Amino acid sequence: MSNWVIVEVVVLWVLTWGLIPFVLAQRTKTPVAMLAWMWAILLLPVVGAVAFLLFGTERVQRKRLKLVEAFRHSVDQSHGALTEEELRSDLGQEWPELYRINHTHATQGNHVQLLPDGVAFFPRLLELIETAESHVCLQFYIWETDETGCRLRDALVAAARRGVAVRVLLDEVGSVWLRRSFFADLVAAGGKFSWFGTFAPLRGSLHLNLRHHGKLVVVDSSIALTGGMNVGDEYWKGSGRELPYRDLQVAVQGPAVLQLMQQFAQDWYFATREALTQECFYPPAPHPGQASVQLVAGGPDNDLNEVQLSVLSLLHRARERIWIITPYFVPEPPLMAALQLAAMRGVDVRIIVPGKGNYFYLTAVTRSYYEELLPHGVHIYEYQPRMLHAKVVTIDGRYAMTGSANMDIRSLRINFELNLLIAGDGIVPQFERMMEQDFKHSERVDWGKFRHRPLRQKVAEAICRPLAPLL
Questions:
Q1: Is 97 part of a structural domain of the chain?
Q2: What is the DSSP letter of 287?
Q3: The domain spanning residue 249 has which CATH number?
Q4: 103 catalytic residue (yes or no)
Q5: How far is CA 88 from CA 78, 99, 255, 257, in A?
Q6: What is d(CA 60, CA 54) in angstroms, rounded to the nearest whole number?
Q7: Which residues pair with 112 in a beta bridge?
Q8: How many CB atoms lie within 10 A of CB 313?
């Protein structure tokens, strides 16, 4: 046996058995998932090991350390620090576990405006960029280089040329086809661009499975826009013969904007090591409304699934109705059980999903869960006119959660996500009126008919369902 063969055997042995303890140390994985990865590594040593390194790890430690702690302390001590009165919201008092889950206080005195589609969102965003005076901070998962993407970039270039501090942060996997050169004019004008960079092999980061799915815009720290929309024609005017996605954003003004600015600053520091601690980013907050807002910023940088726990807390509080819109429905057992129990105790549980999603396998996986919900009284609607990409949960007409997170394993456990939990100021009834219109454009799934669906559909569901953790 040659020396090279011996070396190859040793490397293969180390790669295979060296990963097993690491798999066992993944406390966030279910026993079934751990066993599946162990078998993959043992039976397909090279392929299984590489797949685990790229897709199997669900935790990444953000390298904030002392500088981030100094950043938080600086913000707390600055002129723009939130007061105790601003943090004493009705939402926080009624719901004390929210602070323990999300490690941020709910704020009061906010105004929240619903932007129900791209026609409402993109012109508002362009207007804010054109009138910005101090800074514009943008974070998206996908940025297309189409007409919408170019128009928004050009508006940012113009803002940077007149002295506005522009920062753009994109996920490296979500915007995989975009090149840094697309923002060359912005950088030349004095703006800044960065990848979030969970997948950056040259920097030793191989977390292909970890992505920042959040969408956030902060302008002059006076208004913030967040929700489910990315940047592209398919979210505004449509692409080709396809209608634009059914999506939504919210515009927030008030103390919550400072928390959203902090959230962007933490992600920006993770990506660039530039700490945005200047007072201009945290001015005194106005109080333009009566809405309470709680940030729900989940991520794989700790052992607590903030988004999933916050959703479960919402569902357990429901007494009258739970209405959900989600483009991807791939729930874990705790969420399934909460929905079943809510329907069993007489809560009106309705879920709207796309009638035809943008990925056929995700549609099959979503439908594979119908049999576990319909018999228990959960009502499922399939939205018909176009691709549904909005994400909303409303509870009893009192609370609404919206943002970037889908009702799937990736959003609830793996991705970095950004949601807002909102109450008061008459905003939740606006969400429900919007959802009532979506019900009218959806087909309700009949349990009797669904049981007799074609065999090919049942086979597709059975084949795709095991892939749910990776979708």
A1: no
A2: -
A3: 3.30.870.10
A4: no
A5: 19, 12, 12, 16
A6: 12
A7: 252
A8: 17
- Whether 393 and 275 map to the same domain: the answer is no
Residue 220 appears among annotated catalytic residues: yes
- Check whether residue 24 and residue 160 sit in a common domain: no
**Catalytic, out of 29, 391, 408, 438:** 391
Query: pLDDT of 381-433, one tens digit each?
Result: 999 999 999 999 999 999 999 999 999 888 888 889 999 999 988 999 999 99
Catalytic residue status for 117: no
Whole-angstrom distance, CA of residue 39 vs CA of residue 32 = 11
Whether 348 sits among the annotated catalytic residues: the reply is no
Q: How many CA atoms lie within 13 A of 161 on its CB side?
A: 10
- The C-alpha atoms of residue 137 and residue 249 are separated, in whole angstroms, by 16
The catalytic position among 29, 111, 135, 213 is 213
Per-residue pLDDT tens over the stretch 272-329: 989 998 989 999 999 999 999 999 998 877 667 899 999 999 999 999 999 999 999 9
Enclosing H/E stretch for 87 = none
User: Does the active-site annotation cover 29?
Assistant: no
Instruction: Catalytic residue, from 105, 117, 215, 247: name it.
Output: 215
Check: pTM over 0.90? Answer yes or no. Answer: no
Tell me how far apart the alpha carbons of residues 119 and 109 are, in angstroms, rounded to a whole number: 27
Q: DSSP letter for 181, please.
A: G
Residue ranges making up the domain that contains 431: 306-470
The residue with tokens 């007072």 is 279
Confirm whether 295 is domain-assigned. Answer: no
Same domain for 46 and 132, yes or no, is: no
CB-based contact 250:117 (threshold 8 Å): no
Sequence-distant (6+) residues with CB within 8 A of 98 are: 91, 92, 106, 294, 310, 313, 421
What is the rounded distance in angstroms from the CA atom of residue 400 to the CA atom of residue 395?
Answer: 6
